[in-house]
Amino acid sequence: MPNIILPILFISSFLLSSSDASDFCVADLQAPQGPAAYSCKKSELVTVNDFVFSGLREEGNTSNLIKAAVTSAFSAQFPGVNGLGISVARLDLAVSGVVPMHTHPGGSEIIVVVRGTITAGFLSSANKVYYKALRSGDVMVFPQGLLHFQINAGKTTASAYLSFGSPSPGVQVLDFALFANDLPSNIVQATTFLDGVQVKKLKGVLGGTG
């Protein structure tokens, strides 16, 4: 019997001593980020604060061109979600605020409206449109990689919480991709079917050149 107990105790002790390393991979924000995720912080340096994020308490600053603010709790801001396949954010929309057409290449998104009315929708790869006015308590999902948008459809400030199927879902805003760059205007004109005057105007508004 003693010959059996000793190996069992040894294995149990090993598993207990090494469990932290396999339980999570808190992002080491001081190390370079790889294509998939951040490197793991040494377990002895991990604290409870790595698993807590308080940045979504306050309303975001909507005094900007689109009258919208997104406060992200991705792995770069919330190291504890690194490697877990999840993250969250807060969306605030002033009256007439809008989040333009955009995509998240790295993950699907769910919106949970908590205040006001938000018209939200997405386009399928067949260019079919799915959109609806959402009120407090309503939830909508946007499949990964598809163009989608949110608009304040009411007369008061609107807010929502967003969850993502990735700790770093990425984002590409269509308007900025087209007009906030240094791609020559004649190429943008040819690929968007807009006239040159309109292209230059949009580049001027969004900070593009060329």
TrEMBL record:
Species in which this protein is naturally found: Hibiscus trionum
Cystine pairs: C25-C40
UniProt keyword Magnesium, yes or no: no
Xref: PANTHER family: GERMIN-LIKE PROTEIN SUBFAMILY 3 MEMBER 3 (PTHR31238)
Coiled-coil ranges per UniProt: none
Source species, domain of life: Eukaryota
Binding site for Mn(2+): H102, H104, E109, H148
Keywords of this entry: Apoplast, Disulfide bond, Glycoprotein, Manganese, Metal-binding, Secreted, Signal
Record SUPFAM superfamilies: RmlC-like cupins
Location of the Cupin type-1 domain: 54-200
Protein location: Secreted, Extracellular space, Apoplast
GO cellular component: apoplast; extracellular matrix
Full protein name: Germin-like protein
InterPro entries: Cupin_1 (IPR006045), Germin (IPR001929), Germin_Mn-BS (IPR019780), RmlC-like_jellyroll (IPR014710), RmlC_Cupin_sf (IPR011051)
Any GO MF annotation of the entry: manganese ion binding
Signal peptide, first to last residue: 1-21
Pfam families: Cupin_1
Family: Belongs to the germin family.
